[in-house]
Amino acid sequence: MANPESVDILIIGAGPAGLALANWFRNSNIRVLLVDKKPGPTTRGQAEGLKSTTNEIFETFGIGAQITAESWRLEEIAIWGARKDGGAGIEREQVIQDKVEELGKIRETMLQQSRVEHHMLQNLLPHSNIQIQYDTVPASVKIDAALSNETDAYPVEVTLAGVASDEEDFYGNGTDAEERIRAKYIVGCDGARSWLRKQLNVTLEGDLTDSVFGVVDMVPKSNFPDIRKVCYLRADTGTILLVPRSNKEVRLYIPVESGSALPDPKDLTFARIMDAARRILSPYTLDAGSVAWWSAYRVGQRVGSHFSTHGERAFLVGDAVHTHSPKAGQGMNTSIQDAYNLGWKLRLILHKHIHSAGAAQTLLRTYESERRPVALDLIAFDRGYLKLFAAPSAQFDTEFLRAMKFTTGLSIRYPPSRAVHLHRGVTSPADLGPSLLKADLVPGKRLPEFQVVYQADGTTTRIHARLHATGAFRLLVFAGDIVGQTQLRDKLETLGARLAAPGPEGLGELTGTLSGGGPDTMRLETLLVHCAERDKIELLSLPDVFRPWSETEGYDYWRVFADADSAYEGHGHVYERLEIERETGCAVVVRPDGYVGAVLEVDDFEGVKGYFQGLGMFR
Amino acid sequence: MANPESVDILIIGAGPAGLALANWFRNSNIRVLLVDKKPGPTTRGQAEGLKSTTNEIFETFGIGAQITAESWRLEEIAIWGARKDGGAGIEREQVIQDKVEELGKIRETMLQQSRVEHHMLQNLLPHSNIQIQYDTVPASVKIDAALSNETDAYPVEVTLAGVASDEEDFYGNGTDAEERIRAKYIVGCDGARSWLRKQLNVTLEGDLTDSVFGVVDMVPKSNFPDIRKVCYLRADTGTILLVPRSNKEVRLYIPVESGSALPDPKDLTFARIMDAARRILSPYTLDAGSVAWWSAYRVGQRVGSHFSTHGERAFLVGDAVHTHSPKAGQGMNTSIQDAYNLGWKLRLILHKHIHSAGAAQTLLRTYESERRPVALDLIAFDRGYLKLFAAPSAQFDTEFLRAMKFTTGLSIRYPPSRAVHLHRGVTSPADLGPSLLKADLVPGKRLPEFQVVYQADGTTTRIHARLHATGAFRLLVFAGDIVGQTQLRDKLETLGARLAAPGPEGLGELTGTLSGGGPDTMRLETLLVHCAERDKIELLSLPDVFRPWSETEGYDYWRVFADADSAYEGHGHVYERLEIERETGCAVVVRPDGYVGAVLEVDDFEGVKGYFQGLGMFR
């Protein structure tokens, strides 16, 4: 393929981070080029745990169901320890459910990375604005930071080269000719040995840990009774983490050596790793029926000094800018979540929905201010988590539960910014309370997952599955009991009218004109979740903005939800779980990435408007 | 493609019935050829309701999750009738849940036929023993019934011709040369105008109904409030059935004319159908935003005189042998279920698991004895169902609920045969009671769906999703409370030992040798569902036959289930739903198609053995 001369975004690396980023630009006219040194899509790869928040992201990309169907579920954790009677060997201490109530869904599933990449890649293929070029490496990059204030400028210039090869391509040309390409933005999703990171002079800060681990994927032949559960096997000689996978396989993380004089992981043999495993598992047996993959590694815990450079024209995502142990299953998840944070901001700007270059740059700076603290927290967590493995702990249970909750992302709270407004009257995030491991409705936190019932047909949806990654913000109006409380119904009518009104008094410019406005013109999708008796409400009697009419498609029936019982999935108890008063309600600005931008009074139209004025989306 | 000179099974027609039949021969060495006059796979098609039993079949083929993910859910039914105050127009009478408690799952989903075919076809592609030839029609068939007693004979000889075409194929050959092919069996899945049916001199018995209907798939522009629910709109001028679909579309079945002097459906225009719809919907508006498809038809209600001929060497499946109205959504479902009934019997015989030609023929005769009554029942039901549409009825609610249950297949009970043993001491099916619309555990009925928890890892499965279409029978041992009841534990040990034992005293020949026996050698898979406290049971302490060891894969961890609470899907209450005593238990022979072959005492090893001796699988 001949390269385009210029693109909007050049992404280095078509792994999980690069593919997740690219998925933000489906159904747009933003020109994206991914380059990767690999000869083509990965066809095999290691198992990886998918956290519930990552599965939510796949749902917003429209590929959640396929990925979930292929994934292996993990629902029980067995803790084993040294025998209490002083004898040799280990014994079962307890079995606990691998469940975090706050999530309201499965905490983690397993699917190998190549399949995750496959689904994200397939999802891009229908979109000709997104191209992927394999067998390609960047050779040089120049970024003219002076141009970064000009919205339409191409400050990035990159030379691309074919991967050195003696082969000729289909047309008889050598494939290693260099090509020059200009881009508005460049994003390094090129992994732990990131080429772009080095070019940007971003340094990784941190250390290597003092242990060498082996990791083995195999079909086990063993009389160990809990081999199909997640197991923590804590013997005097170290702790094995065992994770079941599909294809009858399990993965084992095995501590082989620790201390100050460590062997080079390259020198470890499979036999030595298995010996270390057998010592810990004793008196149970362990043989490999077949070995799918094995490796040995030493963990580096490091975070980049910067996540973006050159006036927010260059970005680093995922492993390119932070590394840590794979044990908590955070690697691929954090990479995808980094990309998910960055993508909508670029989309909004490249679609010219932000009215000034300054506001655009301010928004892009939140990528670093939001994601770098997450990486630092993750490293701090990882240190404690590895210690939990290194030595038996009296507080193991408590620490373990904290760890389970941490890995869900429940503790992530982005700091206040133009994209995260604190409550009216609150000036410091500290005033919002700790809220660290709770699924609550707080600006800067992810909108908690919940289940609602469609007013129109009685089927259910989980909210994140409904919030497709279109680039639109959502105003989620929790209107309360609009049948029992006439004052709430009145407030809803007033709010609905102002949201739909054109001109500077309303927000019609963002919500789309009600007639003929398709998803392209809609920057703010208005959704309604009431808790009134569902059969007392007629959808078509609600304000227009919640069931807009289109001349080609009639009414939009999919914007109004009840917090109600359902035929098959029970009751979502949304108001209760999110602690919203049924007599008061509230209005929540949800960012395109599913994070809470603002929590407002249900009739605080000015608050809504102020949010979008702050972002530069509305004058 | 050059045709093979001979195949085991020749299937005429690669629609839903033919593809479902072919799916039975994955992972086998049975040579199957499908021919179809179409130039290739269907790329578009009408929406069709998928009944829960059909979705269960897809699960046993391993394609349930993909199909469910694409399907549209229907969960509410609105009944509208003429205004009670005597005014013009219709009013809402009630909204009911589209739910049949006995099923324990969604009664019906919608997915267009082309997508259903797509998934069944994709599922065949990895299996080179199954080939599909498009653009091909059979020109003649000869069946030598004298050979039908010789198991390995090829009594069927067919001439195949290319569909008349002026084009040449890739290699420059004309494509309409005739080819001769021999087959052991021929199956007509070639639809309502079946070519094979005519060749076999099978006649359709029955009539055309006295109504002409229009059917329209469109994006509606309407102020009718329940347009996203399934609706029965009963006006004085007739009843519309409205079914929501994906892509914002709905399907409408509209009565246009009835009586003795009917127009030819070909003469109906779209405008006339829409006029008829508007008359019924009045005072609500109806316009088409876009029309995906429309048609007009008159229903023929007919059943073939025979379902198999020529000593059970030729078979007719689906629409080829019964036709009825599409309104109850039974067409594609019944076709797939016919095929599902026939496929495993052919597989068993062609794999030489039946030891005599006579026993094989006896088994194949059950295709007609089991499926023809279903078709007759369906026609009888259809007549009543259409009447329900034709005129308002005082018993509408009761009749409607019966209809919902009927369409689930809950009333299907295959008659006693070598494959359906009545309980010991019971000589007539009448003695089993009516049980017609109930999900109970009765020989000849489908094993009711239920949810269990894997002993090994705490995850759940629905039983039919676990009973993959491998061709194996299952012995489902409901062992009861084997912790609380030591006598049950003793019975289980005895049964387990005999099931595993080699030679004429045991059933090891069918259950597979415990060491190294893979799925190919296993004709009877032994599964265990206990209702003891799950954490009081160690999987590896149960009899070997329920967790067999393989030298390559270690233990099989996926055969033992608890009737227990789960982390995310609640409790299946299997013993309660199926009315099995916890202190007694029972053993159930489940046929490869998920129907109950026999219900026995938990330690009735001779009953199990007798079942397989009767089928000719064990001497």
Task: Provide a descriptive summary of the structure in words.
Two copies of one chain form a homodimer. The first copy, chain A, has 619 residues and is an alpha+beta fold. The first copy, chain A, is built from 14 helices and 28 strands. In chain A, strands 1, 2, 8, 9, 10, 11, 17 and 18 form an eight-stranded mixed beta sheet that branches. Chain A has an eight-stranded mixed beta sheet with strand order 6-5-13-14-15-12-16-19, sandwiched between helices. The first copy, chain A, has a seven-stranded mixed beta sheet with strand order 21-20-26-23-22-27-28. In chain A, 50% of the residues are buried. The model of chain A is unreliable at 515-519 (pLDDT under 50). The A-B interface holds A 65-66, 68-69, 73-76, 95, 97-99, 105-106, 219-223, 225, 227-229, 244, 248, 289-290, 454, 456-459, 535, 538-540, 550-554, 557, 566-568 and B 65-66, 68-69, 73-76, 95, 97-99, 105-106, 219-223, 225, 227-229, 244, 248, 289-290, 454, 456-459, 535, 538-540, 550-554, 557, 566-568.
